[in-house]
Design brief:
- The complex is a heterodimer of chains A (about 140) and B (about 325).
- In chain A, about 50% of the residues lie in helices and about 5% in strands.
- Chain A has about 140 residues and is mainly alpha-helical.
- Chain A folds into 2 domains: about 60 residues, Orthogonal Bundle (Arc Repressor Mutant, subunit A); about 40 residues.
- Chain B has about 325 residues and is an alpha/beta fold.
- Chain B folds into 2 domains: about 200 residues, P-loop containing nucleotide triphosphate hydrolases (Rossmann fold), CATH 3.40.50; about 70 residues.
- In chain B, a hairpin with a 2-residue loop joins strand 9 and strand 10.
- In chain B, helix 5 runs antiparallel to helix 6 and helix 6 runs parallel beside helix 7.
- The radius of gyration of chain B is 23 Å and the shape is elongated.
- The two termini of chain B are about 30 Å apart.
- Classes of the chains: A mainly alpha (about 140), B alpha/beta (about 325).
- Chains A and B meet through helix 2 and helix 3 of A and helix 7, helix 8, helix 9 and helix 11 of B.
Chain lengths: ~140, ~325
Protein backbone atom coordinates (compact mmCIF):
# COMPACT_ATOMS: atom_id res chain seq x y z
CA UNK A 1 0.00 0.00 0.00
CA UNK A 2 1.50 3.38 -0.90
CA UNK A 3 2.51 5.65 1.91
CA UNK A 4 0.10 8.49 2.51
CA UNK A 5 1.33 11.36 4.61
CA UNK A 6 -0.63 14.52 5.22
CA UNK A 7 1.13 17.62 6.41
CA UNK A 8 -0.25 20.39 8.56
CA UNK A 9 1.87 23.53 8.50
CA UNK A 10 1.19 25.91 11.37
CA UNK A 11 1.06 23.07 13.87
CA UNK A 12 3.24 23.05 16.96
CA UNK A 13 4.66 19.79 15.66
CA UNK A 14 7.44 20.58 13.18
CA UNK A 15 6.78 19.23 9.68
CA UNK A 16 9.71 16.80 9.72
CA UNK A 17 8.31 15.37 12.95
CA UNK A 18 4.86 14.96 11.40
CA UNK A 19 6.43 12.84 8.67
CA UNK A 20 8.34 10.77 11.25
CA UNK A 21 5.19 10.13 13.26
CA UNK A 22 3.07 9.19 10.27
CA UNK A 23 5.69 6.84 8.82
CA UNK A 24 6.05 5.23 12.26
CA UNK A 25 2.28 4.83 12.50
CA UNK A 26 2.15 3.30 9.01
CA UNK A 27 4.90 0.85 9.89
CA UNK A 28 3.53 -0.18 13.24
CA UNK A 29 -0.02 -0.65 11.98
CA UNK A 30 1.20 -2.71 9.05
CA UNK A 31 0.24 -0.27 6.32
CA UNK A 32 3.90 -0.26 5.39
CA UNK A 33 5.42 -3.72 5.34
CA UNK A 34 8.88 -4.91 6.25
CA UNK A 35 11.32 -4.32 3.41
CA UNK A 36 8.85 -2.08 1.62
CA UNK A 37 10.47 0.80 -0.26
CA UNK A 38 9.76 4.38 0.73
CA UNK A 39 9.42 7.12 -1.87
CA UNK A 40 12.64 8.96 -2.57
CA UNK A 41 13.27 12.21 -0.72
CA UNK A 42 12.68 14.15 -3.93
CA UNK A 43 9.45 12.30 -4.78
CA UNK A 44 7.95 12.76 -1.32
CA UNK A 45 9.04 16.41 -1.20
CA UNK A 46 7.32 17.10 -4.51
CA UNK A 47 4.21 15.16 -3.56
CA UNK A 48 3.85 16.96 -0.22
CA UNK A 49 5.15 20.30 -1.57
CA UNK A 50 7.94 20.51 0.97
CA UNK A 51 11.55 21.54 1.00
CA UNK A 52 13.49 18.32 0.28
CA UNK A 53 15.71 19.00 3.30
CA UNK A 54 12.66 18.59 5.54
CA UNK A 55 11.95 15.15 4.12
CA UNK A 56 15.63 14.24 4.29
CA UNK A 57 15.70 15.22 7.96
CA UNK A 58 12.61 13.07 8.65
CA UNK A 59 14.18 10.08 6.89
CA UNK A 60 17.39 10.67 8.82
CA UNK A 61 15.51 10.57 12.12
CA UNK A 62 13.56 7.47 11.07
CA UNK A 63 16.78 5.74 10.11
CA UNK A 64 18.36 6.71 13.43
CA UNK A 65 15.33 5.39 15.27
CA UNK A 66 15.72 2.15 13.34
CA UNK A 67 12.34 2.31 11.63
CA UNK A 68 13.77 2.53 8.14
CA UNK A 69 17.17 1.83 6.69
CA UNK A 70 19.12 2.99 3.71
CA UNK A 71 20.17 0.50 1.07
CA UNK A 72 22.87 2.39 -0.76
CA UNK A 73 21.98 3.00 -4.37
CA UNK A 74 18.44 1.67 -3.94
CA UNK A 75 16.80 3.99 -1.45
CA UNK A 76 15.06 3.74 1.88
CA UNK A 77 13.27 0.63 3.11
CA UNK A 78 11.24 -0.32 6.17
CA UNK A 79 13.59 -2.07 8.58
CA UNK A 80 13.01 -5.65 9.58
CA UNK A 81 14.43 -5.24 13.02
CA UNK A 82 12.75 -2.34 14.64
CA UNK A 83 13.24 -3.19 18.29
CA UNK A 84 16.02 -0.76 18.86
CA UNK A 85 15.25 0.44 22.34
CA UNK A 86 16.80 -1.21 25.31
CA UNK A 87 14.73 -2.18 28.36
CA UNK A 88 14.45 1.05 30.39
CA UNK A 89 14.15 3.33 27.36
CA UNK A 90 11.50 1.04 25.88
CA UNK A 91 9.53 1.20 29.13
CA UNK A 92 9.97 4.93 29.42
CA UNK A 93 8.57 5.53 25.95
CA UNK A 94 5.62 3.26 26.57
CA UNK A 95 4.87 4.98 29.88
CA UNK A 96 5.04 8.35 28.19
CA UNK A 97 2.51 7.28 25.57
CA UNK A 98 0.21 5.73 28.18
CA UNK A 99 0.37 8.80 30.42
CA UNK A 100 -0.65 11.05 27.59
CA UNK A 101 -3.46 8.70 26.54
CA UNK A 102 -4.83 8.34 30.05
CA UNK A 103 -4.79 12.05 30.81
CA UNK A 104 -6.46 12.82 27.51
CA UNK A 105 -9.11 10.19 28.29
CA UNK A 106 -9.81 11.61 31.76
CA UNK A 107 -9.90 15.11 30.37
CA UNK A 108 -12.58 14.01 27.93
CA UNK A 109 -14.57 12.56 30.80
CA UNK A 110 -13.99 8.84 30.25
CA UNK A 111 -13.84 6.53 33.27
CA UNK A 112 -10.80 4.32 33.72
CA UNK A 113 -12.86 1.26 32.78
CA UNK A 114 -13.94 2.92 29.56
CA UNK A 115 -10.38 3.87 28.71
CA UNK A 116 -9.16 0.32 29.28
CA UNK A 117 -12.05 -1.04 27.26
CA UNK A 118 -11.23 1.19 24.29
CA UNK A 119 -7.52 0.40 24.44
CA UNK A 120 -8.32 -3.30 24.46
CA UNK A 121 -10.59 -2.93 21.43
CA UNK A 122 -7.91 -1.01 19.60
CA UNK A 123 -5.19 -3.58 20.26
CA UNK A 124 -7.50 -6.33 18.97
CA UNK A 125 -8.24 -4.57 15.68
CA UNK A 126 -4.74 -3.31 14.93
CA UNK A 127 -3.22 -5.31 12.10
CA UNK A 128 0.15 -4.82 13.76
CA UNK A 129 -0.87 -7.12 16.58
CA UNK A 130 2.29 -8.83 15.42
CA UNK A 131 4.83 -8.31 18.14
CA UNK A 132 8.21 -7.42 16.79
CA UNK A 133 10.08 -10.54 15.94
CA UNK A 134 13.56 -11.21 17.13
CA UNK A 135 16.14 -9.92 14.71
CA UNK A 136 16.60 -12.24 11.75
CA UNK A 137 19.88 -14.03 11.58
CA UNK A 138 22.47 -12.13 9.65
CA UNK A 139 20.77 -8.82 10.17
CA UNK A 140 18.93 -6.77 7.62
CA UNK A 141 19.76 -7.23 4.01
CA UNK B 1 26.45 22.71 -19.74
CA UNK B 2 29.12 22.34 -22.39
CA UNK B 3 27.89 25.15 -24.60
CA UNK B 4 27.84 28.35 -22.67
CA UNK B 5 27.30 31.73 -24.24
CA UNK B 6 30.49 33.83 -24.12
CA UNK B 7 28.84 36.28 -21.74
CA UNK B 8 28.82 33.61 -19.01
CA UNK B 9 32.44 32.66 -19.22
CA UNK B 10 33.85 35.53 -17.22
CA UNK B 11 31.71 34.49 -14.27
CA UNK B 12 33.22 31.05 -14.01
CA UNK B 13 35.49 32.27 -11.22
CA UNK B 14 32.68 32.55 -8.71
CA UNK B 15 30.90 29.37 -9.80
CA UNK B 16 31.94 27.55 -6.67
CA UNK B 17 31.32 30.41 -4.27
CA UNK B 18 29.30 29.40 -1.26
CA UNK B 19 27.15 32.48 -0.94
CA UNK B 20 25.09 33.88 -3.77
CA UNK B 21 24.23 37.07 -1.88
CA UNK B 22 26.41 38.98 0.55
CA UNK B 23 25.29 42.25 2.07
CA UNK B 24 27.57 44.38 4.25
CA UNK B 25 26.08 47.23 6.23
CA UNK B 26 23.48 47.91 3.57
CA UNK B 27 21.66 51.11 4.50
CA UNK B 28 19.00 53.12 2.69
CA UNK B 29 17.48 56.45 3.54
CA UNK B 30 14.49 57.96 1.76
CA UNK B 31 15.04 61.59 2.66
CA UNK B 32 15.47 61.63 6.42
CA UNK B 33 13.70 58.31 6.88
CA UNK B 34 15.89 55.27 7.43
CA UNK B 35 14.35 52.38 5.49
CA UNK B 36 17.10 49.79 5.80
CA UNK B 37 19.59 50.01 8.65
CA UNK B 38 23.02 48.41 8.29
CA UNK B 39 21.85 45.09 7.00
CA UNK B 40 24.56 42.43 6.83
CA UNK B 41 23.76 38.90 5.81
CA UNK B 42 24.63 36.11 3.45
CA UNK B 43 22.43 33.79 1.43
CA UNK B 44 24.02 30.39 0.88
CA UNK B 45 23.91 28.80 -2.55
CA UNK B 46 21.23 26.13 -2.87
CA UNK B 47 19.03 27.47 -0.09
CA UNK B 48 15.37 28.37 -0.19
CA UNK B 49 15.63 31.56 1.76
CA UNK B 50 12.57 33.38 3.10
CA UNK B 51 12.92 37.09 3.75
CA UNK B 52 10.33 37.96 6.39
CA UNK B 53 9.03 41.04 8.10
CA UNK B 54 6.00 43.23 8.38
CA UNK B 55 4.90 45.60 5.64
CA UNK B 56 7.19 48.59 5.48
CA UNK B 57 10.05 46.83 7.24
CA UNK B 58 12.38 47.40 4.30
CA UNK B 59 12.23 44.10 2.40
CA UNK B 60 11.47 45.46 -1.07
CA UNK B 61 14.03 48.24 -0.66
CA UNK B 62 16.65 45.65 0.29
CA UNK B 63 15.80 43.55 -2.75
CA UNK B 64 16.04 46.58 -5.01
CA UNK B 65 19.47 47.43 -3.61
CA UNK B 66 20.67 43.84 -4.04
CA UNK B 67 19.64 43.96 -7.69
CA UNK B 68 21.30 47.30 -8.30
CA UNK B 69 17.96 49.02 -8.96
CA UNK B 70 18.54 51.41 -6.09
CA UNK B 71 21.90 52.70 -4.86
CA UNK B 72 22.40 52.18 -1.11
CA UNK B 73 23.00 55.25 1.02
CA UNK B 74 25.79 53.29 2.73
CA UNK B 75 27.13 49.78 2.62
CA UNK B 76 27.48 47.36 -0.24
CA UNK B 77 26.36 44.01 -1.52
CA UNK B 78 27.42 41.38 -3.99
CA UNK B 79 25.19 39.04 -5.95
CA UNK B 80 26.70 35.98 -7.65
CA UNK B 81 30.08 37.46 -6.74
CA UNK B 82 29.49 40.82 -8.43
CA UNK B 83 28.93 44.21 -6.88
CA UNK B 84 25.18 44.86 -7.00
CA UNK B 85 25.73 48.34 -8.38
CA UNK B 86 27.76 47.04 -11.31
CA UNK B 87 26.16 43.75 -12.26
CA UNK B 88 27.45 42.65 -15.65
CA UNK B 89 24.79 41.52 -18.12
CA UNK B 90 26.08 37.95 -17.91
CA UNK B 91 25.35 37.88 -14.19
CA UNK B 92 21.97 39.55 -14.68
CA UNK B 93 20.99 36.80 -17.07
CA UNK B 94 21.55 34.28 -14.27
CA UNK B 95 19.20 36.08 -11.91
CA UNK B 96 15.43 35.74 -12.18
CA UNK B 97 13.56 38.56 -10.49
CA UNK B 98 9.83 38.80 -10.02
CA UNK B 99 8.61 42.07 -8.56
CA UNK B 100 5.43 42.52 -6.54
CA UNK B 101 3.71 44.26 -9.42
CA UNK B 102 4.08 41.57 -12.14
CA UNK B 103 4.63 44.15 -14.88
CA UNK B 104 3.70 42.55 -18.20
CA UNK B 105 3.27 43.74 -21.77
CA UNK B 106 -0.48 44.04 -21.56
CA UNK B 107 -1.19 43.91 -25.30
CA UNK B 108 0.66 40.65 -25.81
CA UNK B 109 -0.82 37.19 -25.45
CA UNK B 110 0.64 34.70 -22.98
CA UNK B 111 2.51 32.97 -25.80
CA UNK B 112 3.78 36.24 -27.24
CA UNK B 113 5.08 37.30 -23.83
CA UNK B 114 7.11 34.09 -23.72
CA UNK B 115 8.38 34.43 -27.29
CA UNK B 116 9.34 38.04 -26.72
CA UNK B 117 11.20 37.38 -23.46
CA UNK B 118 12.97 34.33 -24.86
CA UNK B 119 15.01 36.54 -27.20
CA UNK B 120 16.82 38.10 -24.26
CA UNK B 121 17.93 34.83 -22.72
CA UNK B 122 20.36 32.43 -24.36
CA UNK B 123 19.34 29.73 -21.88
CA UNK B 124 15.56 30.15 -22.33
CA UNK B 125 13.84 26.80 -21.74
CA UNK B 126 10.52 26.75 -23.58
CA UNK B 127 9.46 23.53 -21.83
CA UNK B 128 9.72 25.20 -18.44
CA UNK B 129 7.68 28.14 -19.74
CA UNK B 130 4.99 25.86 -21.18
CA UNK B 131 4.79 23.65 -18.12
CA UNK B 132 4.29 26.58 -15.75
CA UNK B 133 1.75 28.16 -18.10
CA UNK B 134 -0.03 24.80 -18.08
CA UNK B 135 0.32 24.44 -14.34
CA UNK B 136 -1.51 27.72 -13.83
CA UNK B 137 -4.10 26.72 -16.47
CA UNK B 138 -3.36 29.74 -18.66
CA UNK B 139 -4.69 29.94 -22.20
CA UNK B 140 -1.61 30.73 -24.34
CA UNK B 141 -3.81 32.92 -26.57
CA UNK B 142 -5.18 35.06 -23.73
CA UNK B 143 -4.04 38.68 -23.61
CA UNK B 144 -1.98 39.60 -20.59
CA UNK B 145 -4.42 42.41 -19.88
CA UNK B 146 -7.26 39.90 -19.47
CA UNK B 147 -5.55 37.76 -16.82
CA UNK B 148 -6.60 37.56 -13.17
CA UNK B 149 -4.17 38.37 -10.38
CA UNK B 150 -3.24 34.70 -9.93
CA UNK B 151 -2.89 34.16 -13.69
CA UNK B 152 -0.64 37.20 -13.98
CA UNK B 153 1.53 35.75 -11.24
CA UNK B 154 1.65 32.47 -13.16
CA UNK B 155 2.74 34.21 -16.36
CA UNK B 156 5.32 36.28 -14.49
CA UNK B 157 6.64 33.14 -12.87
CA UNK B 158 6.86 31.33 -16.22
CA UNK B 159 8.80 34.25 -17.68
CA UNK B 160 11.06 34.37 -14.63
CA UNK B 161 11.74 30.62 -14.48
CA UNK B 162 12.12 29.81 -18.18
CA UNK B 163 15.70 31.17 -18.40
CA UNK B 164 16.52 28.68 -15.60
CA UNK B 165 18.06 31.31 -13.36
CA UNK B 166 20.66 30.26 -10.86
CA UNK B 167 19.30 32.77 -8.37
CA UNK B 168 15.60 33.43 -8.15
CA UNK B 169 14.48 36.55 -6.32
CA UNK B 170 10.73 36.71 -5.72
CA UNK B 171 9.29 39.77 -4.02
CA UNK B 172 6.12 38.63 -2.27
CA UNK B 173 5.13 36.25 -5.07
CA UNK B 174 2.06 34.94 -3.25
CA UNK B 175 0.40 38.28 -2.67
CA UNK B 176 -3.21 38.20 -3.79
CA UNK B 177 -3.11 34.60 -5.00
CA UNK B 178 -6.01 32.22 -4.44
CA UNK B 179 -5.22 28.89 -2.73
CA UNK B 180 -4.90 26.98 -6.01
CA UNK B 181 -2.51 29.51 -7.55
CA UNK B 182 -0.58 29.62 -4.29
CA UNK B 183 -0.13 25.88 -4.38
CA UNK B 184 1.03 26.06 -8.01
CA UNK B 185 3.56 28.69 -6.98
CA UNK B 186 4.91 26.50 -4.17
CA UNK B 187 5.09 23.49 -6.48
CA UNK B 188 7.03 25.55 -8.99
CA UNK B 189 9.44 26.63 -6.24
CA UNK B 190 10.01 23.03 -5.15
CA UNK B 191 10.52 22.10 -8.79
CA UNK B 192 13.28 24.71 -9.02
CA UNK B 193 15.14 23.03 -6.16
CA UNK B 194 15.72 20.03 -8.44
CA UNK B 195 18.80 21.93 -9.50
CA UNK B 196 20.93 21.45 -6.41
CA UNK B 197 22.84 24.71 -6.75
CA UNK B 198 19.86 26.91 -7.53
CA UNK B 199 18.87 29.41 -4.88
CA UNK B 200 15.50 30.98 -4.15
CA UNK B 201 15.32 34.20 -2.17
CA UNK B 202 11.73 35.24 -1.58
CA UNK B 203 9.71 37.49 0.67
CA UNK B 204 6.35 36.43 2.03
CA UNK B 205 3.80 36.91 4.76
CA UNK B 206 2.36 33.43 4.40
CA UNK B 207 4.08 31.58 7.20
CA UNK B 208 2.49 28.22 6.41
CA UNK B 209 4.02 28.42 2.94
CA UNK B 210 7.35 29.54 4.35
CA UNK B 211 7.33 26.58 6.72
CA UNK B 212 6.73 24.24 3.80
CA UNK B 213 9.33 25.42 1.33
CA UNK B 214 12.00 27.48 3.09
CA UNK B 215 15.06 26.17 4.85
CA UNK B 216 16.58 29.51 5.87
CA UNK B 217 14.98 32.71 7.09
CA UNK B 218 15.91 36.29 7.74
CA UNK B 219 13.60 38.59 9.67
CA UNK B 220 13.62 42.30 9.11
CA UNK B 221 11.80 44.47 11.62
CA UNK B 222 11.53 48.22 11.32
CA UNK B 223 14.54 48.40 8.99
CA UNK B 224 16.75 46.20 11.18
CA UNK B 225 17.75 42.59 10.59
CA UNK B 226 16.59 40.71 13.68
CA UNK B 227 17.17 37.07 12.78
CA UNK B 228 19.08 35.04 10.24
CA UNK B 229 19.02 31.31 10.82
CA UNK B 230 17.46 28.07 9.64
CA UNK B 231 13.71 27.54 9.92
CA UNK B 232 14.29 24.62 12.28
CA UNK B 233 16.67 26.55 14.48
CA UNK B 234 14.14 29.34 14.80
CA UNK B 235 11.30 26.95 15.64
CA UNK B 236 13.27 25.01 18.18
CA UNK B 237 14.64 28.05 19.96
CA UNK B 238 11.49 30.03 20.55
CA UNK B 239 9.78 28.43 23.55
CA UNK B 240 6.70 29.14 25.57
CA UNK B 241 6.56 28.82 29.35
CA UNK B 242 3.16 28.60 30.93
CA UNK B 243 3.32 29.39 34.64
CA UNK B 244 0.40 28.37 36.82
CA UNK B 245 0.05 30.27 40.06
CA UNK B 246 -1.96 28.42 42.70
CA UNK B 247 -5.02 29.54 44.63
CA UNK B 248 -3.09 31.89 46.92
CA UNK B 249 -0.55 33.02 44.31
CA UNK B 250 -0.65 35.47 41.47
CA UNK B 251 1.66 36.43 38.61
CA UNK B 252 4.01 39.22 39.67
CA UNK B 253 2.83 42.70 38.73
CA UNK B 254 6.12 43.52 37.05
CA UNK B 255 8.47 41.08 35.41
CA UNK B 256 12.19 41.09 36.14
CA UNK B 257 14.58 41.23 33.20
CA UNK B 258 14.66 37.91 31.38
CA UNK B 259 17.02 37.71 28.47
CA UNK B 260 15.21 36.84 25.27
CA UNK B 261 11.73 37.57 26.57
CA UNK B 262 9.58 38.26 23.53
CA UNK B 263 6.09 38.28 24.85
CA UNK B 264 4.25 37.99 28.16
CA UNK B 265 0.57 37.38 28.58
CA UNK B 266 -1.45 37.16 31.77
CA UNK B 267 -4.64 35.15 32.00
CA UNK B 268 -6.03 35.02 35.53
CA UNK B 269 -3.56 33.05 37.63
CA UNK B 270 -1.55 32.01 34.61
CA UNK B 271 1.33 33.74 32.95
CA UNK B 272 2.56 32.74 29.49
CA UNK B 273 6.05 33.83 28.49
CA UNK B 274 7.45 33.47 24.98
CA UNK B 275 11.23 33.42 25.16
CA UNK B 276 13.92 33.25 22.50
CA UNK B 277 16.77 30.81 23.04
CA UNK B 278 16.21 30.07 26.75
CA UNK B 279 19.25 28.79 28.64
CA UNK B 280 19.90 27.66 32.22
CA UNK B 281 19.80 31.22 33.45
CA UNK B 282 16.42 31.76 31.78
CA UNK B 283 15.00 28.64 33.41
CA UNK B 284 16.28 29.81 36.77
CA UNK B 285 14.72 33.23 36.39
CA UNK B 286 11.43 31.73 35.24
CA UNK B 287 11.36 29.40 38.26
CA UNK B 288 12.20 32.32 40.53
CA UNK B 289 8.85 33.88 39.64
CA UNK B 290 7.36 31.51 42.18
CA UNK B 291 4.73 29.71 40.15
CA UNK B 292 3.18 26.51 41.50
CA UNK B 293 4.03 24.82 38.22
CA UNK B 294 5.90 25.68 35.05
CA UNK B 295 5.15 23.98 31.78
CA UNK B 296 7.42 24.43 28.76
CA UNK B 297 5.66 23.96 25.45
CA UNK B 298 6.68 24.26 21.83
CA UNK B 299 5.18 27.03 19.72
CA UNK B 300 4.06 27.11 16.13
CA UNK B 301 6.22 28.77 13.51
CA UNK B 302 3.59 31.51 13.23
CA UNK B 303 3.47 32.09 16.99
CA UNK B 304 7.25 32.27 17.08
CA UNK B 305 7.24 34.86 14.32
CA UNK B 306 4.50 36.96 15.86
CA UNK B 307 6.25 36.79 19.22
CA UNK B 308 9.47 37.82 17.59
CA UNK B 309 7.94 40.74 15.74
CA UNK B 310 5.68 41.79 18.58
CA UNK B 311 5.84 44.82 20.81
CA UNK B 312 8.51 43.64 23.15
CA UNK B 313 11.69 42.68 21.38
CA UNK B 314 14.06 45.24 20.01
CA UNK B 315 17.03 42.96 19.72
CA UNK B 316 18.07 40.15 17.46
CA UNK B 317 18.55 36.87 19.25
CA UNK B 318 19.26 34.63 16.29
CA UNK B 319 21.83 36.58 14.39
CA UNK B 320 24.59 34.30 15.56
CA UNK B 321 22.61 31.12 15.06
CA UNK B 322 24.44 30.67 11.83
CA UNK B 323 27.98 31.21 10.75
CA UNK B 324 29.01 33.93 8.35
CA UNK B 325 26.44 36.45 9.51
CA UNK B 326 28.60 38.51 11.81
CA UNK B 327 30.73 41.34 10.59
CA UNK B 328 34.25 41.12 9.32
CA UNK B 329 33.41 38.90 6.38
CA UNK B 330 35.00 41.06 3.77
CA UNK B 331 34.51 39.97 0.21
Amino acid sequence: MPLTVSIQPGSNVPIYRQIVEQVCAAVFTGRLLDDEALPSVRALAEELVLNPNTVARAYGDLAREGVIESHPGRGMFVSRRRQIYSGPERTRRMDQAVTSLVSEGFMLGFTSAEIIERVAAKTREAPAAKPTRPAPKGGPR
Amino acid sequence: MTTVAPAFLDDAADAGARDVIRAQGLTAYFGAKKVVDQLSMTVPRGSVFAFLGRNGSGKTTTIRMLLGLLPPTRGSSTVLGHDSQHLPSGARARIGYMSESHSLYEWMSVRECGDFQSRFYPRWNARVFDSIVGHFHLDPRAKASSLSRGERAGLSLAITLAPEPELLILDDPAIGLDPVARRSLLESMIYVTRGADRTIFFSSHLLDDVERVADQIAILDRSVLRARCSVEYFREHVRRFVLHFGEDGAPPAALPAIRGLLHARRAGRDLALTIAAPDDDTHQRVRALGAASVEETPVTFGDAMVGYLGDRGEQGFFLDGNTATSGGASA
